Amino acid sequence: MAGNTYTVNQSAYYRCPHDWANPKHAASHPDHPRSVQIPETQLDRLAALFFAERVFGPDRAALLTAQLPATDAAAAADQAAQEKTLKARIARIETAQHSKILELEDLPADRNDTGNQAYRARIRARFAELHDEREQLEAQLTALAKTTPQAADTALLDRLPLAGDILPGLPPRLKARLFEIFDVSLFWNKTDRQVTIRAELTETTLRYLADVLDPNKDGFDDTCPDQPEPAGDLGNTPRTVRLPQPSMRASGLMGRSGLK
Which residues pair with 38 in a beta bridge? Predict the structure, then answer.
């Protein structure tokens, strides 16, 4: 999803580039909603909740432990389930690619038939998309096979400060740096109205985090008063409609938040 600012009220939204009117997009993702976009202010509040509870909160270790495998056997079972899912998707792609090949073989080789040639081009384009997806899945499968499943270890969390709800007080520059350090990803499921948030904590994260949390840094206590208020429904282009603040729940250093 890419950022987009509406000039009517200067509200920033993240929008999926999927174009329902594009035949290639429609063919590759037939179940995709007609449009997918979400206000930046909604994501910002959810990210703040995630960091306050899952990263800088006193219950972070317990929350993470409850979500991750407690034993090596459970971790192995999770890995096996992931491998099964990847292999199943690869098998479906292989079947789809085979059907595309058969379609091409059955088409008459009439170079003067422009409709025929356009159909051939679409089949080849779809085959190429499937090939790219298959390569990505096979790479994930290879990486997964090199991973040794182990029970969850939350010891690294103990080295993080209990900074609490720190995001609202960070200026945009330091907030962006914090997201970069934790390699934060937000995935929005429009159908379920749910945001899944993931962050990665490593020794490198800890090393760079001090620069962001240092209260003596210039601008640390700055706020961003020009941030727009939430505007519009999550699934529609905003104009002048304003909705009440949504209730939020987080369940995930991976986390998942539902918008109600």
Answer: 14
Examine the domain organization and report whether 163 and 49 are in the same domain. yes
Nearest to 250 by CA among 58, 54, 64: 54
Do 254 and 177 belong to one domain?
Answer: yes
> 120-164, pLDDT tens digit by residue?
888 898 899 899 999 999 999 999 899 888 877 788 888 999 989
With 50 as the cut, is the pLDDT of residue 198 above it?
A: yes
Domain count, the chain: 2
The DSSP secondary structure of 133-182, one letter per residue, reads: HHHHHHHHHHHHHT--------GGGGGS----S-GGGS-HHHHHHHHHHT
Do 28 and 77 lie in one domain? The reply is no
Domain final residue pick, 135, 151, 167? 151
φ and ψ at residue 227, rounded to 5 degrees: -60, 130
Rama region for 98: left / alpha / beta (φ>0; ψ in -120 to 50; rest): alpha
Between 60-74, 93-107, 133-147, the lowest mean confidence (pLDDT) is in: 60-74
DSSP designation for 117: H
Of the residues 151, 170, 193, the one at which a domain ends:
151
Burial track 70-97 (b if 16+ CB lie within 10 A, e otherwise): eeeeebeeebeeeeeebeeebeebeeeb
Strand 254-259 and strand 11-15: the pairing is: unpaired
Helix/strand/coil for 65: helix
Domain extent at residue 54: 1-68+154-260
- Which pTM does this prediction carry? 0.60
Angle at 14 between CA 168 and CA 228, to 5 degrees: 45
